[in-house]
Design goal:
Radius of gyration of chain A: 23 Å
Number of strands of chain A: 15
Radius of gyration of chain C: 15 Å
Distance between the termini of chain C: 44 Å
Number of strands of chain C: 16
Structural class of chain A: alpha/beta
CATH architecture of the largest domain in chain A: 3-Layer(aba) Sandwich
Largest sheet of chain C: 6 strands, mixed
Strand order of the largest sheet of chain C: 3-2-12-11-10-9
Number of helices of chain C: 0
Number of helices of chain A: 6
CATH topology of the largest domain in chain A: Rossmann fold
Number of domains of chain C: 1
Helix content of chain C: under 10%
CATH superfamily of the largest domain in chain A: HUPs
Oligomer: heterotrimer
Strand content of chain A: 25-35%
């Protein structure tokens, strides 16, 4: 089974800091990681390869430093890593990003049986890219998968959705986006990581390699753009109280009464 | 009764009619209300697109809640909301009728259907919007979405592509009251339906496990790394029991082994919107607070007066969690 | 170019006619003194049953009955009007079902399904079953936007 996993290098969002004056994210000194759900996808791919054989190709569209994420993916177990990088790709929304990724996937020989993506990224959080790649490549999709089983030429997958557990049978080739519960990414042995950074090759494809025109990618290939960016208004500004535990607990209990979580003592029932 | 006019050149604001369960239907009604506001600004009319089998009552309900037009495709093969089949069909409708704006709820279905549809239509989509406005000057739809975990808000526009598509965070807008006297137009387009056989829904059943318990609780007590031990974490369960609530945890607390992953709240865990959330020993890191900021009332307990959690709390208590909890439990047990 | 059929739709109550929802419709001319007509009137939010009025003929062109808002005003044909759980039905002496009206209740509204095969005074088919409702032929108004007024000022 030939599998493609799309990954994205993202800033380690929990540790991100904000430049409040310029309204941008301070990237200096912030670690970059593989989007956590993409690691889940990689683990699932490795698992499937163990069961079925085949090759895992990992793809990423990003600036040159995304190569680190791809090397990590190789250490994780991918057979081949391709970085889609070009200044022209910058400023892309998901429409343009999915176009670049889909074009790259369609150039792979043989065409993969399965494309895996994380359900969403921790930085932009849209969850668009998987479905949009699926649409461009005319692949059936199931999103938010938490179980994958093989059944002949098809896959039986499950996902938890709107309060329901859905089970689907999907013909391959197909695209699946994965959720947290699908697998627990294993730890990469240090030796594999070292080898990935020293010996392994990363293939790089740019605009020309993909035979794309500038107006199809990046800002030109995008339909949306961010017009303004501003700080979210603080939603609440409540009182902050200090004092002895007794006084704090009194305060808390009065609040619970005010919210009708507790009935007022000696009050009406 | 409203007299509607035949106006085929009217601009269209479309809303995708998801009626399947109570929650999704409510989101549709919220969108119809907002669509009406946008329609007034744009001189447009509101059309709700309803696909499925035996959808008469939903079409009626949408008119009652403000739809000018309902567009209905009623066919057995549309019974299950199937992304590929729906994308193909709705794209054909959009290409013919050319709406200006198309909205859907940012429910799990909306979030996997609308991107595929937007791609098919080669147009722009913003996701999980918390505000929508029409810009006075440009007449463009201003789509406000949270960015970087909600700390920033991005205003997104789709300048040159149509329709301008957006999925909207549930609960942001308020539905209009049901109006039994409303009359609207109903349109039945003659379209070919191509069910996609490559994906088959084998079965769908309500979750057996109690996984919905946190999301459905009216009261949630959350413990963070500031809770010193498993024993102390137990006091949160005691408090939850007294207040008829459920217990959640932050990532650091889960990592420290204080409780299980299924209670994790935040960006990579669950999101809750209870009536009351009491967050204890949590510093207030962004990837946690995005999971709780929808709560009606937040009470925070932390020994550090500078902890960011106090910025989003309605009431903050600066003190030692252990002492406060012990005393609180004692007092509550006496009166309950 | 997609073609579509179009009708009106009421928030509170609709019938199914020509495979479309409609708040009210009539076939023939309800104002006429002697001719065939069938009127399924608009149901107002204060009401809970739809009002059906009609002047019906048999295949020989003889007047069978006149229905005025669900009650028999004339009944030369000696038909029987029976109430049913969802509405009513009218049966001929030959046991043939002439007309059946069934109203389904939703959480916030009603839907009425009519079953009938009706000919006018010249033995021309004017109403027949189609899916869950009826198909109508000839002079008709498929979607009323206000309750029908019998007495013109």
């Amino acid at each position: 089974m030939d599998i493609v996993v799309c990954i994205k290098q993202v800033p380690d969002v929990p540790n991100i800091r904000l430049d409040k004056h310029r309204m941008t994210i301070i990237r200096e000194g912030v670690e970059s990681i593989i989007n956590p759900l993409d690691c889940v996808a990689l683990e699932a791919a490795v698992d499937l390869r163990e069961r079925q054989g085949g090759r895992i190709t990992v793809l990423s569209m990003g600036p040159p430093q995304s190569e680190e994420a791809l090397r990590e993916a190789l250490a994780f177990g991918a057979d081949q890593a391709i970085l889609l990088t070009d200044p022209a790709f910058g400023g892309a929304d998901t429409l343009a990003t999915s176009h670049v990724l889909a074009t790259a996937i369609s150039m792979l020989k043989p065409f993969p049986d399965l494309v895996l993506c994380g359900k969403q990224t921790i930085d932009s959080d849209t969850g668009h890219v998987g479905p949009q790649i699926a649409e461009e490549l005319d692949l059936p999709q199931v999103c938010g998968v938490n179980e994958i089983h093989l059944q002949g030429d098809s896959l039986v997958v499950k996902r938890l959705y709107d309060g329901f557990l859905d089970t689907f049978r999907v013909n391959t080739p197909a695209l699946l986006t994965v959720s947290q519960e699908l697998s627990s990414p294993h730890h990469i042995p240090l030796a594999d990581l070292e080898r990935a950074f020293s010996d392994r090759e990363i293939i790089r494809w740019g605009l020309k390699d993909l035979s794309l025109k500038p107006e199809e990618v990046g800002l030109g290939g995008s339909a949306t753009r961010v017009w303004k960016l501003h700080k979210a208004a603080p939603k609440r500004r409540g009182e902050v109280v200090t004092g002895s535990p007794q006084s704090l607990v009194e305060h808390l209990i009065r609040k619970l009464e005010a919210l009708s979580i507790l009935d007022e003592e000696n009050g009406n029932e | 009764m409203k007299k509607t006019e035949m106006n085929s050149h009217s601009k269209g604001i479309w809303v995708f009619g998801d009626y399947r369960h109570y929650f999704q239907n409510r989101v549709t009604l919220q969108l119809i209300a907002k669509a009406n506001t946008l329609a007034q600004r744009l001189g447009a009319e509101v059309t709700v697109v309803v696909l499925g089998e035996q959808v008469h009552q939903y079409a009626m309900e949408y008119v009652a809640h403000g739809a000018d037009v309902v567009m209905v495709v009623d066919h057995p093969s549309l019974k299950n909301f199937q992304v590929e089949t729906y994308s193909r069909l709705v794209a054909a409708l959009v290409e013919d009728y050319r709406p200006e704006v198309f909205l859907a709820g940012a429910t799990p279905f909306g979030r996997e259907f609308f991107p595929r549809l937007a791609k098919r239509l080669k147009t722009g989509l913003s996701t999980d919007c918390i505000a929508l406005e029409v810009d006075a000057e440009t007449q463009l739809l201003l789509q406000t979405t949270p960015a970087f975990g909600g700390e920033l808000l991005a205003e997104v526009i789709t300048q040159n592509h149509r329709p301008q598509m957006a999925t909207v965070h549930p609960g942001v807008f308020e539905e209009r009251i049901h109006d039994s006297r409303a009359v609207g137009r109903i349109i039945y387009p003659e379209v070919d339906i191509h069910p996609d056989e490559r994906v088959q829904l084998v079965c769908s059943r309500p979750e057996q496990s109690k996984k919905g318990y946190l999301e459905n609780a009216a009261v949630v007590i959350v413990g963070g790394r500031g809770i010193g031990s498993g024993e102390q974490f137990q006091s949160l369960f005691d408090l939850a029991e007294l207040l008829q609530g459920e217990v959640g945890a932050t990532r650091p607390a889960v990592r420290a082994g204080l409780t299980g992953e299924d209670r994790l709240l935040g960006q990579t865990g669950k999101s809750v919107k209870p009536r009351l959330l009491i967050t204890v020993g949590t510093s207030g890191a962004l990837q946690y607070t995005t999971g709780i900021q929808g709560s009606e009332t937040i009470i925070a307990i932390n020994r550090d007066a500078q902890a960011p959690i106090f910025k989003i709390a309605d009431l903050g208590l600066v003190g030692d969690a252990h002492s406060i909890l012990t005393l609180l439990l004692e007092k509550l047990r006496k009166r309950l | 170019m997609i073609i579509h059929r179009e009708s009106l739709i009421g928030a509170y109550h609709n019938y199914l006619v020509n495979n479309m929802l409609s708040p009210g419709f009539f076939v023939g001319d309800p104002h006429s003194q002697d001719d065939f007509y069938f009127l399924a009137d608009i149901m107002l939010p204060e009401e809970v049953v739809p009002a059906i009025s009609a002047r019906l003929f048999d295949r020989q062109g003889l007047l069978l009955l006149e229905l005025k808002r669900n009650s028999l005003a004339e009944n030369q044909g000696h038909c029987t009007l029976e109430t049913t759980p969802g509405g009513f039905r009218i049966v001929c002496p030959s046991d043939e079902l002439l007309l059946e009206v069934n109203t389904q209740r939703f959480a916030n509204g009603y839907l009425t399904r009519i079953k009938a095969q009706l000919y006018d005074g010249s033995n021309i088919l004017r109403i027949e079953p189609l899916h869950e409702g009826v198909q109508v032929y000839g002079q008709a108004c498929l979607a009323l936007d206000a309750p029908f007024e019998f007495h013109k000022r």
